[in-house]
Write a structure and sequence with these properties.
Blueprint (H helix, E strand, L loop, with lengths): L4 H15 L12 H8 L3 E8 L5 E7 L14 E3 L4 E7 L2 E9 L9 E9 L6 E8 L4 H7 L12 E2 L3 E5 L5 E5 L3 H4 L8 E2 L5 E2 L41 E6 L16
Parallel strand pairs: 1-13
Antiparallel strand pairs: 1-4, 2-3, 2-5, 5-6, 6-7, 8-12, 9-10, 9-13, 11-12
């Protein structure tokens, strides 16, 4: 049976087509979200929610040489129960927020939110870094956040539970929603009760690797800083630049950190 000229041409074309190398697949460009993350935000917004049924005292500290807040009052203030407040900071900012129950005088032993929006490790872009700390040490800053976040710190222990999350996807960044007062005793080697609503962390003078939190602070180890080189920071974990920190327990409505101990 003979083949028509058109059939022969078609067969030859198909053979040639299969012999040619295929074109590489087109790689889609990164999403707008990823491109924005790579640049880093121009400002950082930290919202604080008091989910407790008691008012809180707050104390804001901006590190020496860092720019001041774009929004928010750096003066010590009081948050009513169920109240919400926020600060907005520019690039280059680094500082912290100390929190404790308003019925007690503020001390150097309260829970702390540490934050920064800086270029780190010679990176050309800005990095958001937020953590919750129950111990403060200048060396902790150098080891974990590479900048001087807590060189002007006013927190060295636990007063109230705090958990910080990224607004974009509600991912928990740092912190622990456990009420350590109800889980253990702040006494002896575990901690020192300052009689002003805070437990001073006995490990704050120590700058060593491979330590373990004391019994009082242990349920939050790895979730919040419980010793100077604990691993509880969230560097570049929320490059969208909008963070919410919830003060309270799980029963109050604050999210749990997967790194914390189960109740």
């Amino acid at each position: 049976m003979g083949f028509s000229l058109m059939t022969l041409i078609l067969v030859s074309f198909l053979a040639l087509t299969h012999a040619l190398p295929s074109m590489p697949a087109v790689t889609p460009p990164p999403s707008l979200e990823r491109r924005e993350d790579a640049r880093g935000p121009k400002r950082l917004t930290v919202t604080i929610e008091n989910k407790m049924n008691e008012p809180l005292s707050t104390s804001y500290v901006t590190n020496p040489g860092a720019p001041t807040l774009l929004k928010g009052d750096e003066q010590p203030s009081t948050m009513a129960a169920s109240a919400t407040t926020s600060i907005v900071v520019p690039s280059g900012w680094a500082g912290n927020i100390a929190m404790g129950l308003a019925k007690y005088a503020m001390s150097g032993d309260t829970s702390l939110i540490e934050g920064s929006l800086t270029k780190q490790m010679n990176n050309p872009y800005l990095s958001v870094d937020i953590d919750v700390s129950y111990v403060s040490s200048p060396t902790k800053v150098l080891c974990h956040t590479h900048i001087a976040e807590t060189l002007t710190s006013n927190s060295n222990g636990f007063s109230v539970p705090i958990t910080c999350s990224c607004n974009r996807d509600d991912t928990v960044l740092s912190g622990c929603n456990l009420d350590l007062w109800s889980l253990g005793k702040c006494s002896g080697d575990a901690g020192t009760d300052n009689r002003q609503g805070a437990c001073a962390n006995p490990l704050r003078p120590y700058d060593e690797d491979n330590m373990t939190a004391t019994e009082f602070f242990l349920p939050c180890q790895g979730a919040a800083f419980t010793w100077a080189r604990d691993n509880a920071n969230s560097n570049e974990g929320c490059q969208s630049g909008k963070v919410t920190c919830c003060v309270g327990t799980g029963e109050d409505g604050c999210p749990a950190n997967p790194k914390q101990a189960s109740e």
